[in-house]
Predict the 3D structure of the following.
Amino acid sequence: MPQDPQVKRSLGLAHFVSSIADNSGLSILDLGEISQPNVTFITTLGHRLYSEDLLRTLDSHMLDGDLAGGPAQPDRIEGFLHECLGFPASSLDGALVWDTLQYVSRPLLLAIVERLHEVLKPGACLLTLFHASERPQELPLFSYRIASPETLHLVSRGTRQSIQFFNNRGIEKLFERFSSVKFFLTRDNIREVIVSR
């Protein structure tokens, strides 16, 4: 029997929505599980939404786990990036990355962040989330569904092993090529981060 979703007030989401609300016809990328509420919310604002379930694609590319936790070959990383982030340079106006970056190995993580920097337009925002655990561990995995400009419904997708731990300094370093990184305090164990290209 499906569980009722957790309701989360999200200042990071509110900031992201405000960054795209005054325009129309923008191109937004959602890297979480494809969700009709997100499609409806973004298209109602007058934008196009491209959905790519990054973790599902990651799983489909894994033969022996090398993309998730071990040394990944450059050609396999490039194939993964082409499938998930095969957009022209500076073609996207925003990205909803959610908590997907915690579940990939360092080589793939750096490649994903670099590709996001390439495909986002200057000034574009991305919203990403990091669980505040102090070590890699099995974490609850959610589908993040937009209920309002500052409310998310978190629908359980089970659990998944995080690959690495991120503190605030590590997150800033990860996005050092971007123009700014802003953290939002929350009452739960999830850090909300807005990164501006």
